[in-house]
Design a protein that fits this description.
The protein is mainly alpha-helical. Helix content is 65%, strand content 5%. Helix 1 packs across helix 4, helix 2 crosses helix 3 and helix 2 runs antiparallel to helix 4. It starts with a helix and ends with a strand.
Length: 110
């Protein structure tokens, strides 16, 4: 029972952090970035699948700054919810304080 209680507490913490970081379902920036990277309009799942396909078949340059920013932004957003106390996450936040959002051209603090 104690183990199940700890698991439930951890899940509730993740849900709370997710709601704090993502108060509105979906991330408009993420959709715009995926559309800019793929040149397509589709569902989030379709855009993500297309980006993965392009990465796998090497049709997108791994040095593309839009790809780099997209990967940093989405990775840090996910770790902020799943493992906010992870030391690597904290170091990455310190090193990557400002993101250049490719689709909007705006700079935002993380």
């Amino acid at each position: 029972m104690a183990f199940r209680a700890r698991v439930a507490i951890n899940v509730l913490g993740m849900v709370t952090r997710h709601l704090q970081h993502n108060p509105v379902p979906g991330d408009p920036w993420e959709r715009e970035a995926l559309q800019a990277l793929t040149g397509k309009k589709d569902t989030m799942a379709g855009l993500t699948t297309e980006l993965c396909r392009r990465i796998a078949d090497h049709s997108i340059d791994p040095g593309n700054p839009l790809l780099r920013d997209y990967l940093w932004h989405t990775t840090l957003a996910k770790v902020a919810v799943d493992q906010p106390r992870y030391s690597g996450y904290r170091r990455a936040q310190e090193q990557w304080q400002v993101f250049q959002y490719p689709a909007s051209g705006n700079r935002h603090d993380s």
